[in-house]
Specification:
The complex is a heterodimer of chains A (309) and B (394). Helix content of chain A is 25%, strand content 33%. Chain A is of the alpha+beta class and 309 residues long. In chain A, strand 5 and strand 6 form a beta hairpin. The chains are: A alpha+beta (309), B alpha/beta (394). At the A-B interface, strand 2, helix 2, strand 3, helix 4 and strand 9 of A face helix 1, helix 2, helix 3, helix 4 and helix 13 of B.
Chain lengths: 309, 394
């Protein structure tokens, strides 16, 4: 057995009923403790796993998706597959991630939440969309997938997620970081974290973005906190260089924050970006210019008023 | 499960990114962080088997990208081939591509779009058609050039009649043009060979690097001979950060070198790379515009030597030395399925179907002549003992 991946031989123990709260934690992660015992699910058995992955082994499980998880603070995960009877095509896969923090769990959850997903009251947040379900609570993020949309599988999938969430001892509040976003026009559950390269720029670190809708127009508001004034200056210059190359620079803005400029981008639409203290703040999309400026100004004010930690 | 705030908090989270950004700025300068002009680069285009399509030598891998403008910039750099899947972030990648397609107008016709879905045994024709329609909606287009089944890890997974029925119906409706498959699992050789023999697949999408699978070149050649085009990915041979960091100290780009290496094979139509920022577009487009250099070859050779004994190639060379007829390659492959690909039950069943003498039950007490026979110097015995324990619950 390698250090990178620990296959946990507790299938039999789970099958006979040593499930949530009864199994000793494995490697201190405790994720296995969260899994429901198969014996508590009538007709179900453990058909795959348990398999644990750490940060070095995650690439083997998720391929190109692994960096996204690592950037959000991934600490470890456990994978298991529950199967109904002897039918290999009637199974539900459960992946439980320790993301190291509430923020990381929220970031991962929101990064994969499909628009239009059905909301579920699981932990801090939960949803089901077709054969997929997910939730987060505390530092734990849960993802589940059923083989197909048979009601018995969907029902079991939802029950599994709910039970795991109930076993997590963690907070259910949304991260404070999104409180600074203006509320008017904010599209529900559109707030997302980006762990690195906000707006695909390497000179911007992680940040927050959210969608806004006013009448039939949509736009995106974003902000990123940098290490200090030199980094902000570099980032603003980088954004200007980028727009000079790929789009058009519009008017200078000097009435919001520490100033910035408007732009027209072939991929993003019209927009504006300003700096304020250690933040770079921007907006883009189809929203009218006055709405964009109003959102920018509100966000800048909110960031200035936000308590520092 | 402890869920207190001992991990990254808001400020640490943002500062982490800021620190990374600062290093990048300090190391390379801002100009390098903005995507530089690419007009000096000339993207190669290669035929995709017998499909009649030409694909850019570097393809845009879309997992995790957020900014539709990134795809527009990639298009300007000649990356007209876009790889995605309905499963990438539950459709979010397709949606972002769709936003980009919505802004490029007639340039849509320049694109070669790959999308795909997992199609399991037991899937219905309607569910496959539903996946295709959902992808088209998210992509804001009426067609994709290639629809592929993803995550294939066994030839058995190709025997899904509903897939072929659905594909033909979607093709007749003009929604898809060519059928492909993708997988990155070890043991893909069996899948690729089965797909070539099947005759219905026109495109393969597979892992390919300079340190794995000794028979991969032959498979790609055979595919090409059968009019099948191949896109490759995972060219980094494990992308082991520590080794790469040391090798890049000389100023070379490991990623560029691996792309260039893959493109030295005329049977590789395109290398798919994940692109999440503007800097990568220049870096990867440059790789597709220039030939591999001697120092780059030397860097890859050094890396391959460092990786030499770290994984099994399933070459079976050691089996001739085994006094017990252990099917080493099969056992290793099943252990890999068990450990890395969530196919625990399947791998245990396969292992159980091996004749008793071909299992690794006797390895623990063996003098292990296989180890001296392994051309890669691997600790075969320890791994076989572990594999037996995994696959038999011994």
């Amino acid at each position: 057995m390698t250090n990178r991946l620990k296959c946990v031989f507790v299938v039999a123990l789970l099958a006979i009923g040593c499930g949530a709260g009864e199994e000793p934690s494995v490697d201190g992660t405790g994720l296995v403790d969260l899994l429901p015992a198969a014996s508590s699910m009538d007709g179900w058995q453990i058909a795959g796993g348990l398999t644990e992955y750490d940060s070095e082994g995650l690439f083997e499980y998720l391929n190109g998706g692994a960096p996204l998880y690592l950037d959000f603070g991934f600490q470890g995960m456990v994978h298991v597959r529950y199967q109904l009877g002897d039918d290999p095509l009637a199974s539900v896969t459960l992946d439980v991630y320790d993301m190291g923090s509430d923020l990381g769990a929220f970031g991962l959850y929101r990064s994969g939440r499909p628009p239009g997903a059905e909301v579920r009251r699981w932990g801090a947040e939960g949803y089901r969309s077709g054969t997929v379900a997910a939730a987060w609570k505390g530092s734990v993020s849960i993802q589940a997938q059923a083989d197909d949309e048979q009601p018995k599988l969907i029902e079991a999938m939802e029950a599994l997620v709910a039970r795991v969430v109930d076993s997590v001892d963690g907070g259910t509040s949304l991260p404070q970081i999104i409180d600074v976003l203006p509320s008017e026009g904010l599209v529900l559950t559109s707030e997302r974290l980006v762990a690195k390269d906000l707006m695909s720029h390497t000179f911007l670190p992680g940040g927050v973005l959210a969608s806004y809708r006013v009448a039939d127009d949509e736009g995106t508001l974003f902000f990123s906190e940098l290490a200090g004034e030199p980094a902000v200056t570099e980032a603003m210059a980088g954004l200007r260089d980028h727009q000079e190359q790929w789009g058009e620079i519009g008017e200078d803005i000097d009435s919001i924050g520490d100033g910035g400029f408007s732009f027209a981008d072939p991929g993003l639409g019209s927009g504006a970006v300003v700096s304020t203290g250690s933040y770079v703040v921007g907006v883009h999309g189809d929203l009218p210019s006055d709405v964009q400026m109003n959102l920018l100004a509100q966000l800048v004010d909110n960031l200035a008023a936000a308590p520092t930690e | 499960m402890a869920t207190n705030g001992s991990g990254i908090d808001r400020r640490k989270f943002l500062k982490l990114g800021a620190a990374t950004s600062g290093l990048a700025i300090g190391g390379c300068g801002r100009v390098d962080d903005v995507m530089a002009d690419v007009s000096d680069l000339e993207m190669q285009f290669r035929p995709l088997g017998g499909t009649g399509l030409k694909v850019s030598a570097v393809s845009f891998g879309s997992y995790g990208f957020d900014n539709p403008a990134l795809l527009s910039a990639a298009l300007d750099a000649g990356m007209t081939t876009i790889c995605t899947s309905g499963s990438y972030q539950n459709g979010r990648a397709e949606e972002t591509i769709g936003k980009a397609i919505g802004t490029i107008g007639g340039r849509r016709d320049e694109l070669v779009l790959f999308t795909g879905a997992v199609v399991r045994a037991g899937a219905s024709k309607q569910s496959v058609l539903g996946s295709i329609d959902a992808s088209l909606r998210r992509l804001q287009t009426d067609r994709v050039e290639i629809f592929r089944i993803t995550g294939v890890s066994s030839p058995d997974e190709l025997a899904v009649d509903a897939l072929y029925e659905a594909f033909e119906e979607a093709k007749a409706a003009g929604k898809v043009s060519h059928l492909g498959l993708s997988g990155h699992h070890g043991g893909m050789q069996d899948v690729l060979n089965a797909a070539i023999d099947d005759g219905r697949y026109e495109v393969l999408f597979t892992k390919y690097d300079f340190a794995s699978y000794p028979d991969q070149d032959e498979i790609l050649k055979r595919a090409s001979g059968n009019g099948i085009g191949t896109l490759v990915f995972k060219t980094g041979a494990g992308n082991r950060e520590k080794e790469i960091k040391d090798l890049e100290a000389s100023g070379l780009s490991y990623k560029q070198a691996t792309i260039k290496w893959a493109l030295t094979n005329p049977n590789v139509a395109s290398v798919c790379v994940k692109i999440t920022n503007f800097s990568q577009i220049r870096e990867y487009a440059e790789a597709a515009s220039t030939k591999i250099t001697e120092p780059e070859v030397a860097m890859l050779r050094t890396y391959a030597e460092q990786m030499y004994d770290k994984y099994c190639r399933f070459c079976s060379t050691c089996e001739a030395s085994c006094p017990h007829e252990v099917a080493v390659a099969d056992v290793m492959r099943y252990a890999m399925y068990f450990k890395y690909y969530g196919r625990e039950k399947d791998s245990m069943e396969r292992y159980g179907e091996l004749p008793r003498e071909c299992q690794a039950a006797t390895c623990d007490d063996c003098s292990a002549p296989c180890e001296s026979a392994c051309p890669f110097g691997r600790q075969v015995k320890d791994e076989l003992v572990e594999a037996h324990r995994l696959l038999s619950f011994a």
